[in-house]
Structure formats: C-alpha cells, structure tokens
C-alpha cells in the first residue's frame, strides 16, 4: 500500500469516527433534553395523562370554544413529544383524584368544575369573578390583595400553574390554564410550549403559579404574552376571612 492510498484510508476512517462521535453526542444531548422535558411534565415514556376539557359557557348546548380546542391540540403535541398517552374527558366527567397521572386542566372555574375544585384545594389565595352580568369586574382575578380586571381584546389575564400535592416523589403534576377568556387559555398553553425549558431551569419539578398578560388579542391572537409576576406565594396563601367573596365570585378556599 503506497502513501497516497494509506492517507485516503486513514482519512475515511477519521471521517467515520468523527461522524460517529458527532451522532453519539447529538443523541446523548437529545435524550438528556427529552428526559428533562418528561420530568418537568411528569410524562415518562408510555405513561398516561389526562386532558380535562371545559365547556363554552356562551353555547346553548355542550360545546368547546375553538380557542380551547387549539389549546388542547397544542397540549396534545407536547404529550406526544414526551412519548406519553392522553385521555380526554369533559369537565363534568373527571371524577378522580390527582397525583397518579399528569393532568392538564383548561378553562376558568365558570366553565370548568374540575378547575374550580383544583383552585379550591390548591390555590386558596385566588378568587375569580364568574358573574355572567356585564360589569367592570366580570372575569376579574383577585390574587392576594391585588385585582386584575380585563379589557376584552386589549388586556386579559391568565394563570398558568404547575402544582404537586404531598411529599410523594413520584406524584404527577397538575397543570392549570385558567384564563379570563378562551383565547387566553390558548395563550397560556403556547407560552408553556415555548418556555418549558426556561421554566425547568428555574423551578425544576416544583410548583409554581404565574400570572400572564395577553396583549391586544384582537390583533395578535394568543401570541403576544407577558409575564406579569410569579404569584405562587400569594395564590397558595389563604385570603383573610374578612375578605368575603361577593355573590357570583368563585372563592378558592
């Protein structure tokens, strides 16, 4: 074998080794990223999850608002990416506890009984005005001592929460998407899909409650979202007894 042939063979071998090492490195990083994502969502390979669907309060018959359908589709994609399975149930048919499998619950307490139950059990510092009559406080959030009113289509708010209960290390989380309007529910699911890596770095697999502001949804849809504040402590601290909830206001207590 002359020098030219030997150099060609060595070059091919070196290229093959480099390609193999590069593939192994990319595979390792992809798997590590996937494991972090699965841990954050509580969705190991082939696990089961629950998607709780709310109802459209404006519809005469049981129906789901189109923006909530979009939210469910985005959540379905996240679940599929983790290699998990999902079961879709309506808000009045979810009769089970939490912690056994990851749950994604969409819609405010006025359209989702399951959301009302979760907020009462886990977010005692939050009240949502579910009065059907028009007024400045319709749909408003009260979190601790702060009130957040919506200006429909201009400024709207949504709570995005990841909650775990008890000390079980294997307890699966509950994700809440509680918005003042259906489009804000979709905005929260999209925010989670885009920012879950940053949220993982900050919170790990712990609980958090974030207040998000959806800006000018009538022009930008669910895409322009700002983080207002981390309200975990206020949301999980019971409101004073003197702050009695008015009629047609859901009190999470």
TrEMBL record:
<keyword id="KW-0812">Transmembrane</keyword>
<keyword id="KW-0472">Membrane</keyword>
<keyword id="KW-1133">Transmembrane helix</keyword>
<feature type="transmembrane region" description="Helical">
    <location>
        <begin position="6"/>
        <end position="29"/>
    </location>
</feature>
<protein>
    <recommendedName>
        <fullName>Secreted protein</fullName>
    </recommendedName>
</protein>
């Amino acid at each position: 074998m002359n020098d030219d042939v030997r150099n060609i063979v060595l070059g091919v071998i070196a290229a093959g080794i480099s390609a193999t090492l590069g593939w192994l490195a990319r595979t390792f990083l992809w798997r590590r990223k996937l494991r972090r994502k699965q841990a954050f969502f509580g969705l190991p390979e082939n696990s089961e999850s629950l998607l709780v669907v709310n109802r459209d309060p404006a519809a005469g018959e049981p129906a789901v608002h189109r923006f909530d359908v979009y939210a469910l589709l985005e959540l379905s994609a996240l679940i599929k990416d983790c290699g998990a399975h999902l079961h879709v149930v309506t808000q009045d048919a979810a009769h089970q506890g939490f912690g056994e499998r990851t749950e994604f619950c969409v819609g405010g307490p006025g359209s989702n009984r399951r959301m009302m139950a979760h907020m009462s059990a886990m977010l005692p510092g939050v009240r949502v005005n579910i009065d059907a009559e028009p007024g400045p406080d319709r749909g408003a959030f009260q979190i601790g001592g702060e009130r957040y009113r919506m200006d429909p289509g201009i400024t709207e708010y949504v709570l995005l929460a990841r909650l775990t209960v008890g000390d079980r290390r294997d307890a699966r989380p509950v994700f809440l998407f509680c918005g003042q309007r259906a489009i804000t529910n979709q905005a929260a699911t999209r925010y989670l899909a885009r920012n879950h890596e940053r949220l993982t770095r900050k919170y790990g697999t712990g609980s958090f409650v974030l207040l998000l502001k959806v800006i000018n949804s009538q022009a930008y849809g669910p895409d322009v979202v700002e983080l207002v504040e981390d309200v975990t402590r206020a949301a999980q601290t019971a409101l004073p007894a003197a702050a009695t909830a008015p009629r047609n206001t859901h009190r999470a207590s």
